[in-house]
Every structure is written in C-alpha cells, then in structure tokens.
Amino acid sequence: MVNGWTIDMAVAAIVECCGVTRLRAHRFARGWTRARAVSELIALCDGLALDRPNPDAEQLGAWERSARMPRAQTIDLLCRLYRTDAQGLGLSGGYRADVCSPVTVFTPPVAPDVPVTERAAAPGSPDVSDPFDAVARAHRRAIERTLASTTLTTGELESLDGKLLTLRRDYVSDPPMVMLARLLTTLEEVRQYSEERQPALVQVRLSEMIAVLSTLTADALMKLGRKEQARDWYGTGKSAADDSGNRELRTRVRVQAAMLPFYYGPLTEAAALAHEAVLLNRGRPSATGAFAAAAEARIKARQGDEDGARASIAQARGLFERSRQAALEDDAWAFPYRRLQLYLSGAFTALGDTVQAGRAQEEALRLYPDHTGIDPALLRLEQAMCLVRQRSVSEACQLARDTYLAVPGDHRTQILGTRAADVIKITPKEARPRAARELGELLALPSGGT
C-alpha cells in the first residue's frame, strides 16, 4: 500500500483511465516494464522450483492485449506473480494477497471543507496529506505510463515492415486473387495494433502501412473488375494516407485511385484525382511526382487535350530525371523508369503519336523481365492500337488476341479484357476484319477462357 492506495485500487484506476486490460494494468501498477515482468516471472518459477514457461516480452505483450491466450500452467504462474485471482487477471487461479475486490472502482475523494489558506502546501513541495494532491499525482503517473506504453515492440514493427515489403515485391508478379488474401490478412494484423494506444510515431507508421495495403487491395480488386469494392478500398487508402500526414503518400494514393476511373470511367473523375495528386506534389522532383504527372498526361491524352498532355509528359520526364530516388524494379509501390515508359506509351498512343509511342513501348518492354504481371501485356496491346492507327487492322487484332491468350489464366482479368477491347473500339466498324470479330468473341468468354 502506497499513500493509502492498494495495488487493486491502482489497477482499477489504471483500467478506468487508460482503457488497458487488467493483466497489463497489474504490470503498470507495479511500475514494471515487460522485460522486468518476465524476469520476475522467471525468478518466481526458480524460487518455487516450478517449470519455466519460457515467455518473452513480445509474448507477454500479446497476452496483455488479448491477442493470444496463455496456457493453463502459465495462467497459474501469472496469478502467483501478481497475487490475484480470476477476476483480477480475467484468466484463472486464486492467490490473492487480500480480500479487496479486484474490480474496485476508484472514486476521487471529495475535498474537505477547509479554507484554502489552511490547505496550502509549502512552496515547491507537495502536501502528501492533501487527498487532491494524491489523486493528481496518481493520474499524472497513469498518464505518463500511457504515453510511454505501446503494444508494439520494435521487433514487431520491423516484422510488419518486412511483411509489407514482401507483399509489395510479390504483388508485381503474383495473381491478384492470391494477393488479395495475403493483403487482407496483413491488414487485419495492422488494424489490431492500430486499435490500441500507440506512441504518435508508431501510429503514423501504422497508418502509412494501412494506406499502402488498402491501395494495393483496391488495385487487385480493380484488376478483377470489382469496381465498387475497389472504389471503397481506394477511399480507405486515402483516409489512412491523410491520417498519416505523409504528403508523398497522400499523392501516391490519389494517383493510384485515378486508375479506376481511367480504365472504367468516368474520365473526369480520373482527371480530378490525378490533378489533385499533382497539386499535392507541388512540383517536387520525385518518382511519385513523375507518376502523378505521367498519369495526368495519359488522362489528358484520352480526353483529347494534346497540348495539356504534352506539357504533362514534359513535366513527368523532368521530375523523374531530377529525382535522386533509386526506385526498386520489383516493387509494386515503386515507380521505376520502365513504368514511366508504360505511362508515356499510353499517353502517346492516345494522342496518335505512333512514333513516340513505339519508342516508349520498346524501351519499357526491354526492361520488363518475364513473369511481371500484366504490364508487358498492356504495352503490347498499345502496340496493337498503334497498328490500328497505321491501318494494319488485321495485324493489330491478331497481336491483341495473341497477347491476351499468352497471359496466364489467373492474370487474365477484366482490366486486361477491357484494354484489349479498346483495340476493337478504335477500329472503324466498316473496316473491322474477321480478326476483329474473333477477338471480340474471345473477349466475350469468361475470364481465363480460351
């Protein structure tokens, strides 16, 4: 008992003030770190000649946030360590040191009706007899413990970073349906950590992770043609990016979100999102800034704004050349040179500039290795569109058909079919050969059909 407070009173006050579990509150009430609690548990086992449960600080943290349940033997040891019972920890056991109810609710004492001058403490020293002083100090200690506490260790945060990087790399080549399951699993893990109180810098990092994972989830859904779900997930990604306060991330998520209306319409929505990203970037030379400008160029070209498209192309090239970031090739969250060429190919193709489009396509295809998702297929479909512009319609439709069939079935999603159908759309009806009809019949089959 300290200053009239029992451990149970302190636990109850901490639970009420901080909203933590009772298991964690018992540790806080003793002023222990997780490492100290583990050491005390091991010492208890050694002193009583009991088998050690071999816990570590991370495992204790998982028990404290109810992410995992300790075994029955370990529960018994925790009850011995904290000298409480089932209600005290919410687990099991019965080794209470006193009969005070573990769920005692602490109520701040009412100030006695004494003149202020009689209650005043000496300057510079707390009045330990003043009940208000005891309450204030107790709350301050609880708040400081809350500010210093975290359910996420450095090791756990690094583990999440590692998982995210692996997902970003695998997303380049793995099928969208496979990636969806993995993305959602990691998102749930990050969400659980975000639900609990974390230090500000940790919470920012978790929001950044949610933004990236949500955006990749939206992108996978977009590829599968699940437009409404994709729109919702892009919205979640934008909210998380805004919550993080990371301007580059906010820019990037908006560029990615613009791709949904770019492929499925309306183009005005795509233009608004891309322009918002350009404004957020504020002309900073970075790969993300180049991505925003290149996306805006592709959209303006499809809208028929040739001058605006060419200005955005020049801006994208300039920002990319001046950026000093080394973009990883096999990272879905990067914007390497080959992806810049992919976007410029789309812009030049829409403008009908087949010469510049051809150069961008050849440069990009030279840099793309095998098994890199649908980007190479999108480039070849744009080559087919250029052939239509050059009046080689039969050759164009044959190239589009061969390209579509060469893509593995689990990558042959609606977004690829939509782009292949654009080859037919830009072909005048009166000039559509048999190859165009065959391509249309192929695209009418269910995804993955041959």
Alpha-beta classification: mainly alpha
Instruction: Specify the helix fraction band.
Output: 55-70%
Main beta sheet strand tally, sense and closure: none
Quote the distance from N terminus to C terminus.
Answer: 78 Å
The radius of gyration over CA amounts to: 31 Å
- Give the overall silhouette: elongated
Q: Element order, helices and strands?
A: HHHHHHHHHHHHHHHHHHHHHH
Mean pLDDT: 84
Number of helices: 22
Give the percentage of residues in beta strands.
under 5%
Q: Give unreliable regions as ranges.
A: 93-128
Strand tally is 0
List the helices and strands and how they pair.
Blueprint: H1 7-18, H2 22-29, H3 34-47, H4 57-64, H5 72-82, H6 86-89, H7 116-119, H8 131-148, H9 154-171, H10 176-195, H11 200-223, H12 227-244, H13 247-264, H14 267-281, H15 287-302, H16 306-322, H17 337-351, H18 354-367, H19 375-389, H20 393-406, H21 414-425, H22 434-444
